[in-house]
Specification:
Blueprint lengths: L1 E5 L2 E3 L5 E8 L8 E6 L6 E6 L5 E3 L7 E6 L4 E6 L8 E7 L4 E2 L3 E5 L2
Parallel strand pairs: 2-11
Antiparallel strand pairs: 1-3, 3-8, 4-5, 4-9, 5-6, 7-8, 9-10, 9-11
């Protein structure tokens, strides 16, 4: 199992980023997948979950701004992040819930 995140970077408040998580060694659509994040000096927190049947769950502070999705043909998980705020600054990880696999993370910094 391998998860490789990409798409992070520096963005101004109000901007957008799309994170990608390329998976190998398993089929993304067959597992519950999550995006989690860890801000400096804070605990790891869940951002969004995508269930196998397509149901999605979002943390309260990202609802209406973030969208989780997957591309079955590319075996890739995405997180579209709009209206970004400085509080969204963190390292973002994609995770396969079963087995608690996680990638190396991608840094998102929201700052003017």
């Amino acid at each position: 199992v391998q998860l490789v995140e990409s798409g992070g970077g520096l963005v101004q408040p109000g901007g957008s980023l799309r994170l990608s998580c390329a998976a190998s060694g398993f089929t993304v659509k067959d597992y519950v997948m999550k995006w989690v994040r860890q801000a400096p000096d804070k605990e790891l927190e869940g951002v969004s979950t995508l269930y196998t049947q397509g149901e999605t769950i979002y943390a309260d502070d990202v609802k209406g701004r973030f969208t989780i999705s997957r591309d079955n043909a590319k075996n890739t998980l995405y997180l579209q992040m709009n209206s970004l705020k400085p509080d969204d600054t963190a390292v973002y990880y994609c995770s396969r819930v079963t087995g608690n696999y996680r990638g190396q993370g991608t840094q998102v910094t929201v700052s003017s």
